[in-house]
Design a protein that fits this description.
The complex is a heterodimer of chains A (235) and B (233). Chain A has 235 residues and is an alpha/beta fold. Chain A is 49% helix and 11% strand. Chain A starts with 21 loop residues before the first strand and ends in an 8-residue tail after the last helix. Chain B is built from 8 helices and 5 strands. Classes of the chains: A alpha/beta (235), B alpha/beta (233). At the A-B interface, α2, α3 and α5 of A face α2, α3 and α5 of B.
Chain lengths: 235, 233
């Protein structure tokens, strides 16, 4: 099996030779249905007999709580915010993702470094700096980018949980109200995701359809991936 | 890093660096007294002091769950928070910022902990370049004598216990400080730090420091002719 590698300088003291599992990332902008797809994927993979470990952003033992609190108070500046996310990511990578890969699990993550990079870049951070910052990350086995048009995203958000402060980029003062702000913010996010898709080699999945349709497409890709036993890293 | 370059305006950034026990904080406090007494607007900033990040760092330290990487990133977050919240606004308003330890501390410590030197340098690209960066050079034994003699208990990360250099906390501290000292010597060349011989008397060191700082104050607006001592910090 092909060996895992890091995007940049990686993590000190972490050996990659004994990582046996697969790292599967599901990415996409807010409201695209990522968590639903991740949950379905998990069930299906377990049904097939794979041990699955799933994880997402801001859940680490180290920074998860602090990050949540800081977000609630809207008290963070851009750099601090980005570094907080990176800390949280590093903690999860070292303490959860890598041990799970070592144990031969399929690690399924609802978002990875790409959402964090997009969030920083859309707010004006230097893209090269953010990319270097996340050079600690492992290159995933596959990155599925659930891609939907803004027209499809709007009702999904509006008629489920509603518009959220951060998902609407309200801190950026892009519009007169949350709806306007959401549209402008997500448009910019989609542009950044398209750029990253080329740069990082995303596998794009059309997410404009209904849940079942999207899942079928995703399933097909993952099945292909798992049938090719020799591919551990994406590129 | 925000795309617009940080503008120093009329401000001045003066930082002190050195291993624990080099006497740098004492020197900076004396410099602060001198500046405030002349009526300069002074803002003091200290390593690892952002209230926001402290909770996370403390949590990590108490539970001993920090790795080289998360140690590096939490300290960078602390530094970013202070840069955005305190240092930049004070400099842009034309004041003097005094910083007890600066990015060089991270460059020394993180590299000793095993983080790629280039990674840490890239990470701190957003840091404002200091007007003056003093490095208090002191032989290891002198610094250890000051620290180990005076203070009570060494803390886990402070002594570099996470590096497993020794089971004995004092011995670990010694070995850790020796490595940091080596890094400081390299950094001092790389970044052209202003070296002060920290074995000299406190008064001599302070006189040197003031002589170096004085010409850099030209053009900085004072708040009053004589500052109030009670306004310190």
């Amino acid at each position: 099996m092909e060996r895992f590698r890091f995007y940049g300088s990686g993590l000190p003291g972490v050996k990659l030779d004994d990582l046996r599992g697969r790292l599967i990332v599901v990415e996409g902008t807010d409201g695209v249905g990522r968590s639903t797809q991740v949950a379905l994927l998990r069930q299906w993979l377990e049904q097939r007999g794979h041990a699955v470990f799933d994880t997402g952003l801001t859940r680490s033992a180290l920074a998860g709580k602090g990050l949540k609190r800081a977000k609630e108070g809207n008290t963070l500046n851009l750099l601090t915010f980005t570094l907080f996310y990176a800390t949280d990511f590093a903690d999860q990578l070292e303490n959860q993702i890598i041990p799970a890969l070592r144990a031969g699990f399929i690690v399924l993550t609802d978002r990875y470094i790409y959402s964090q990079i997009a969030r920083a870049v859309v707010r004006g951070a230097d893209e090269a700096w953010v990319r270097d910052l996340f050079g600690i990350a492992l290159v995933p086995t596959a990155i599925y980018y659930l891609k939907a048009d803004l027209d499809h995203l709007i009702p999904r958000v509006a008629f489920t949980r509603g518009f959220d402060y951060w998902e609407s980029g309200m801190d950026m003062r892009l519009g007169r109200d949350m709806f306007e702000s959401f549209c402008r913010y997500q448009t910019r996010m989609l542009e950044i995701f398209d750029r990253m898709s080329n740069f990082y080699g995303f596998s794009e999945v059309d997410a404009n359809g209904m849940v079942e349709e999207v899942f079928e497409k995703l399933q097909r890709r993952v099945r292909e991936l798992l049938n090719h036993k020799n591919t551990a890293a994406a590129r | 890093m925000v795309k617009a370059l940080p503008q120093l305006g009329a401000g001045r950034l003066i930082v002190v660096e050195g291993i624990d026990g080099s006497g740098k904080s004492t020197q900076l406090a004396l410099l602060q007294r001198w500046l405030v007494n002349q009526g300069y607007p002074v803002r003091f900033s200290e390593w690892n002091s952002s209230a926001l990040v402290k909770q996370i760092t403390k949590r990590g330290k108490d539970r001993r769950i920090l790795t080289a990487t998360t140690f590096c990133l939490t300290h960078a977050a602390d530094f970013a928070d202070r840069t955005e919240r305190d240092i930049l606004p004070a400099l842009r308003s034309g004041g003097i910022v005094l910083s007890d330890r600066y990015m060089y501390t991270a460059l020394a410590r993180d590299v000793v902990r095993g983080v790629e030197p280039n990674y840490v340098r890239q990470l701190y690209r957003f840091a404002v370049k200091p007007t003056l960066a003093f490095y208090y050079r002191v032989p290891l034994e002198v610094a250890l004598g000051r620290i180990l003699g005076g203070r009570n208990a060494l803390k886990y990360y402070e002594a570099g216990m996470d590096l497993s250099l020794s089971d004995d906390i004092e011995e670990s501290f010694r070995l850790f400080q020796r490595r940091i000292l080596q890094q400081y010597e390299l950094l001092s060349k790389e970044f052209g730090l202003m070296v002060i011989d920290a074995t000299l008397s406190i008064e001599e060191q302070q006189a040197q420091m003031r002589a170096i700082v004085k010409p850099k104050l030209e053009g900085v607006k004072r708040l009053s002719k004589h500052g109030k001592v009670s306004l310190l910090r």
